[in-house]
Amino acid sequence: MEALLPVIAGSIFAAGVYLLLKKGLITTIIGIMLISNSVNLALFSLGRVTRENPPLVANGELIPATPFANPLPQALILTAIVIGFGLLAFVLALAYRSYKELGTVDQDTLLKDPEDTSKAIVNVTNDNRGKINR
Amino acid sequence: MLIMIALIFGVALVTPWLSGLLKEKAGWVLALLPLSSFIYLVSWIPEIATGGTVTQSTVWVSMDYFEVNLAFYLDGLSLMFGLIITGIGTFIVLYGNGYLHDNIYLPRFHCTNLLFMGSMLGVVLADNLISIFVFWELTSFTSYLLIGFNHEQEASRKAALQALLVTGIGGLALLAGMILMGFATGHWEVSTLLNEGDIVRNHLHYLPILLLVLGGAFTKSAQFPFHFWLPSAMAAPTPVSAYLHSATMVKAGVYILARLHPVLGSTEPWLILVGGFGLVTLLMSAWLSISFTDMKQILAYSTVMSLGTMMMLIGLGTGLAMQALVVYIFTHAMYKGALFMVAGAIDHEAGTRDVLKLGGLWSLMPISAVTAIIAALSMAGIPPLYGFIAKELLYESALEVAGWPVLFISVAVIANMAIVAASAIVVIRPFFGKQVKTPHKAHEAPFSMWIGSAVLAVLSMIFGIWPFLVDKNLMVPAASGVWGAPMNFYLSLWHGINLPLILSVVTLAGGILVYWHWDYLRDSIPMRVYQTGFAKFPVKVYENLVNGMLGLAGWQTRVLQNGLISNYLVTILIAALIGIGYTFVSRSGVILNPDFTEIYFYEWALVIAIFTSLGIILAFGHSRLTMVIGAGVVGFNLALIYLIHGAADLAMTQVMVETLTVILVVLVLIHVPQLQATRNLISQSRDAFVAVASGLLMTLLIYTATSTPLDMFISEFYAEASYPLAHGRNIVNVILVDFRALDTMGEVVVMSVAGIAVYALIKMTRTGSAKNRSEKINSGKPGSAKKKSATSGSTPKGKAL
Amino acid sequence: MKIFLFNIILAMIWMAVTATFSFGNLLIGMIIGYFVLLVVGSTIDQSGYTRKVWKAAILIIFFLKELFVSSVRVAKDVLRPGFRMESGVVAIPLDVTSDFEIMLLANMISLTPGTLSLEVSEDRKELFIHAMYIDEGVDHVRESIKNGLEQYIMEVTR
Amino acid sequence: MFEIIAGICLILGGFFMFVAAVGILRLPDILMRMHASTKAGTLGIGLILLAVAFTYAEIGIVSRAVATIIFVLMTAPVAAHTIGRAAYYHGIKFWKGTIVDDLKSYYERSRKAGLSSGNHPDPH
Amino acid sequence: MNGLLILPIALPLLTATLALIFRNYSSIQRWIGVAGMVAILMSVAALFRDVYVDGIQVLQLGNWEAPFGITLVGDMLSMLMLGISAIMGLIIAVYSIYDIDKEREQFGYYPLLHILLMGVNGSFLTGDIFNMYVWFEVLLVASFILLALGNSKNQLQGALKYVIINLFSSLIFLFGVAMLYSITGSLNMADLALRLPEVENVGLVTTVAMIFLIAFGIKAAIFPLFFWLPASYHTPPVAISAIFGGLLTKVGVYALIRTFTLLFTQDVGYTHTILLWIAGFTMVTGVLGAASHYEFRKILSFHIVSQIGYMIMGLAFNTKLGLMGAIFYVLHNILAKSNLFLISGIAQRLTGTFELKQMGGLYKHYPFLAVLFLISAFALAGFPPLSGFWAKLSLVKAGLSIEAYVITAVAILVGLLTLFSMTKIWMSAFWGPVPEKGVPDHFGKMPLFGPGNLYIMVLPVMAIAGLIILIGLVAQPLLEVCLIAAEQLLNPSVYIEAVLGAQ
Amino acid sequence: MNFFSIAIIVVYVFLSLSLLISLVRMIIGPTPPDRVVALDLIAFVVMGYIATYSISSGHPVYLDVAIALALIAFFGTVAFARYIFLRASQRREDQHV
Lengths: 134, 801, 158, 124, 503, 97
Known about the structure:
The complex is a heterohexamer.
Chain A: H1 5-20, H2 25-46, H3 71-102, H4 107-110, H5 118-124, H6 126-133
Helix pairs in contact in A: 1-2, 2-3
Chain D: H1 2-26, H2 30-55, H3 59-90, E1 98-101, H4 102-112, H5 116-119
Chain F: H1 3-28, H2 32-56, H3 63-96
């Protein structure tokens, strides 16, 4: 099985990248989802986690039954997965929001680099401008 | 001296408040500052005159890579320049106070003007190469502000930028040259460098150093082909022109070359470059000067001509040339300053500077008239004025040039004819002839405005008649400062009939002749062509350079920063592919030794499942739901893979997170419609290529990295320490909460911030209904997201059953 | 209801006695407690708790049987080439009223042979199910459900 | 003894899983497919979990297995119900063997009565 | 073991929580925010003293000795970065009091600001490569929301690019970490520095170096990877773009300096040549981009890119002087750049726009502001005697001393172009005549100090300008500590010994 | 090669087959609900895998994952169903107004 993991990781990565470059925002996000999955799998396979006992210390034992699966990559992946989830949740919210504000999810049309940004700022800071005028 | 300069800077900074205090009188008070420093410098004359030099040094930065001292070195040369700067500076402060008395920016003028004075003094007095550069840049900076003084007008802003850029690039070249010089000798003090000329001259980098330094000097001193910025800089108010662009700043280049002459000078390239460019400049600008009718333009080009003369003299590098140089600098400062002030006065009182629109002012402005006449005579080099001595010396030194004296002397004579004509123009036209109607009713300028020019003019007459007043105690030390070795000479007005005198006569005659036919000459075709070729064309070149740069910039930005995120990503990916892939293949090479034995059939099933769902995801680009489902399947199978490899917690988390993510995506899908548009085939195939390549690269990297056994010493330690030391049976958990607790803390922070983020994103809203708010708020945090989606999912059920 | 709490208390006592606190042991405690109640029940028990539990047990067994049978039948149909059944969406008038009962019924219907609940009418009077086998006619389906599951459920809940 | 039972449970469970899979592949329309997936699937997973319970006859694991089974029994039909309803609402092609559809007429009625809107929260 | 090392990470967290509790009482929140920054600054000062006096400080968290636990390491470089980030934090916190509106405050502006700082400090302090990844994520997620906070069209447009590209980069970073682990079996950077030279397949190590170059390069916005920066940094409120433009990209630079001096020193000839090329292109493209824009903050954003090039150049020289120049440049650039952003904010408050073409007359009506701008702008262009001069001087010197003439010439010319676009701002916004229409009615009437409370924005700017001048005039101390930092970087054995104990 | 291990192998065979078959259904669709049903079944199959593996590997720990999956997969399915439902009613309203 281990021998196959790199191929799997690579292909998931490829698929993710392909989606990442697509027009639709949601598609891009699904792409990111896949990419993070693939990177986690890569970390897993790079950590040489082989088909062995889970890294647990059985009752009454002091050390786990050897050979045990390498625990460190597991811990790292756990952290990475959770972090990735948090970021993804944020991105989804962002996508939702920008659809509400900008009215489309087509990245080519809506995501031109904004030029003059002062209007936005001024609008947002109305209360302060009131302070200025008085 | 440090105190002196620091004082000037200090006062300059408080000037705005100061002049707020004492309104009109500000100028008079401030004038005391340069005056006092003038007196201070004068007090050194006795010591300098006896061949002594003064060095004062204060450590600024001193470490094993920097030796930047605020060191000052006072010898004849720097003393002369210092006197010129402070002396004329005194009058300029007064003059400016009168000239700009009704200008609201007068305080700012005083401020920047004093700042400039301080930095200029710094340039001529500084000893350390770096500190010279520091002051050098400061002069560029302050002159930028002074030229752009009338900043409401487009022209003066342009001119200011022009001056700043031209001198700025020169300054940077100078810096490089100085650093190279420092590396070559290992010394950063001019005073020590002066004795190390041979090292520099024989050094491998001599030519680069020379070129870089010349770059600095030529740009600053407006030598051909950089001369164009000086005339445009006449947009500045007259006091500025009088001070910066005739008396002081433009001479900084001359000064630096004169200063470094002992170090770099008297070599073949030096003679050719400095002398040659000087020669070209002086010839060109002399005749340009009489092609204009604006007094300031005429004076400006004549200044350029004088600068060219100085350069030529430096280039010649003979002892006589040195004498000529110092005398010429001295006299030029006096008469040109005076003339500029007069021109300004006329402009100020009569409202125009165009000699054609002026006439017969002598009765209205007698003092200015007299001053102008004296100064002009000195400029034309007519006895008994100091300018005459200078010209004599110039001719003499031109005559004794090794090589082709004929060339030099003839050029000098021809150029001086034009100058004679020019000086005639600037005096005769405005003051004599019949009176003409001028914009303002002209009257004599106020005291503060004529005193300076008057004094200077008178001085140049006095020194002309009694040269010994200055030569022993000023000219000789200065000349020897340039010469690099003590020299001795005396100046006199009358050498009897000799070749230079004859030449002077010739020059005078020629000049008068030229003046006679000026009106015709000015409008003649060749003159026009000449003017366009040498006055306007360089400006055009400069402008085209700037515009070209801007065009390039615009093009590059349009190409790179085109706002298409997919293009950004593709660029990044391709860069990564090339960078990583090339390195990988060329440096490491692919190592493949996987063994595909012992893969159970059910594992094959998982693999097939993953690939199938990937295929589904890619194939069903038009149905996002299907893509999400596919992604979910992939996630589940990954969880299974983790599980098979004994990573229970991992599998658990994977399942949880995957499902939650899918749920969140679906929740968003509910609110965000499907996008119909797709890319064209080319970009699709481009994307496909990039994707496949990156996937392949990743696979190969992993194979290569895993081809060698892994040292699991850390995990073994964890395994041993987990229960006995950390009292945890699940090693992965122990790692998370104990060995690497900080990671977990960060993780928690990320999660909670993401929660806040989603909350803010959804709640800070002007659109969108309350219901989908509540959903999305909770979807930030996994636990509540579960609960929420449960209720949201069961809403229809609750209704249904 | 308090009798049920009593049962739990009995279970607790059992756990205390056996001094092993675990889900399984709680289960055992419940069962023993239930039998205790079954014995002494009639004296202290008015709410027919024991009877209901008994019925519930029967219901569960019945349900499991149905589940098994239905699965077997589905298996038969699935694995046999060609389809000889007739199917359709059938409306079933309801006697049960409370949400809980309806949910229970719907779920069980979904798990029993050839029926899958789809929708409940606004007025809670009708339950729409998708039936796989209405070869013997729609009414037969209705009958089987009303006499089968619904009866059992009502016995438990009433 | 337990081993034998566990083995039988396993095989049966696997078999029913398989049946469910074949069912959703073969059966003619989606509601029929859901019959297969719901019933056979639930039974299959239940049996396999039972097998786990029998293999490790420890109380902890048994209770966990049982809890899971109960949970599955509770959720599977609900899920089936929601999907089925959604599917029906989404509009399905009934296969030729479909002879009656009361729900259709019901929806017609309720829409006339304007009730349907209350029933279906309007999406954005 | 020095317990102080945890403070720069713990204090922001504490402050953030407090501020979150009081998120509905804006005044309390503000003061908590400022006070927290002061506390951080003080703790950093104490730490700095320790490092300056007795060398590199180390904290083994949970007493698990390296490489098994996570180690916090404070060497001179980290200290300098920490110091500057603390100062910037304080400045920004004060500036925000006026610049940030109520709504943003209620939605957790101050907590997020502190979390951001926490992430930044964490990545400066950590001695563990995976932990650095975690901190990057922390500061990333905080920056995401700070960027999007307010939900204006532009912000969302910018934020989407920023978010997507940075997510991708951190995934690459994670993959790089995985590769490192799989070839060495360790995550502690000091331990890695010991083990990497023993790897037979040097090429693979170089490849990993490339992966990190890409990952950090995206964060630091180097040449082919910088596009997200000019697309996003000019969209949020000024205070935010100031701290972004000043601090965030420099974290990437810090990571590059750290990894390419400590870990990837096997194949310097190859990697650092690539760095040199990247540096050149980054400088040029950035400054050209700036030259082609007429929006105040966009110009500044492009300049960030071009000046990243200088820092990379210093790193690529890989000499003591070069590194010293790079570090000094980073510090000076953070000050000058942020200050320019802050000034742009004030200018926008006065003229109501960021578009240079619609600005003007600031020199006429607000000479003091003009002076402040001049100081920052010419410091950025490296004019003496301001802070930028020393950075430029040392970099040019470093370049000439190793006879890298071409890149030095490029650097010098880019400096001139920087000057050009700075004067572009100056000549239109300050010298330019007051535009006829579109000027807010308070323009010219509202004083910098006095009614309108504008001084809350001006004071921080004055403070930074003062720092710039101070550094320029009294460069010796800072140059010396930068030199110490460079020496420590070029001699990793000190670092390794401090972390792992004597070998 | 006792009965038990044979049983395990048989189960793996069954499960693998079911996984692949349900994937086929997922491919051919034709409607989203079909795919959701397929996903639902796949979740079941995966649960089966996990349970079986927790037997064959001799580590009952893995059972927890199965439980987690059982808990969570349900919500996923419901979410999908809700999505389909809402989209459908949306479409209907578009038709009927």
